[in-house]
């Protein structure tokens, strides 16, 4: 199995490399510091598994995940994040991720996740399985952002980190007017009026 690690912190990549080296079925371990570098390496070589940080400088790991699954659908992607599983895991899985682990995960669980993904394409930890079950069985008390569609959620995050409507439109290949329309829908669903309200909400809910 050929693996590539995408994380902007060199020390994190080194740590992951040392853990993964314990798996004798892994032949290659390459590294990328950002999404652009990751895509460039993908165009030169074939990878079976990407271990992808969800928070990269000026990039959203969920966007990179979707780009990979569009162009290389057979590739497994294991999301790694500092955010709690319940914040992003369900969305990551719906975008095609094969698993989601937090960065405080023990080395043994990372190796188990890689092994399970290699065998059947998915790894769901017991704690994540519990989160998924609760999300299916809970009828009320949902967080405000759960009312948003996938595209609305994506745009909300981009607004919250300070991107302009023009920047968002360019990233998503849609017009500024369309982005503005999405922003209005988001504000209505979230019962908010200003971008700073979204930023505060996202910080408080550990979405950014």
Could you write a compact summary of the structure shown?
This protein is an alpha/beta fold.
Task: Describe it.
The structure is a single chain. This protein starts with a strand and ends with a helix. The protein is built from ten helices and seven strands. It has 208 residues and is α/β, with parallel strands linked by helices. It folds into two domains: 2-136, Rossmann fold (3-Layer(aba) Sandwich); 144-204, Winged helix-like DNA-binding domain superfamily/Winged helix DNA-binding domain (Arc Repressor Mutant, subunit A), CATH 1.10.10. The mean pLDDT is 87. The strands form two sheets. It has a five-stranded parallel β-sheet with strand order 2-1-3-6-7, with helices on both faces. A two-stranded antiparallel sheet has the order 4-5. It is globular, with a radius of gyration of 18 Å.
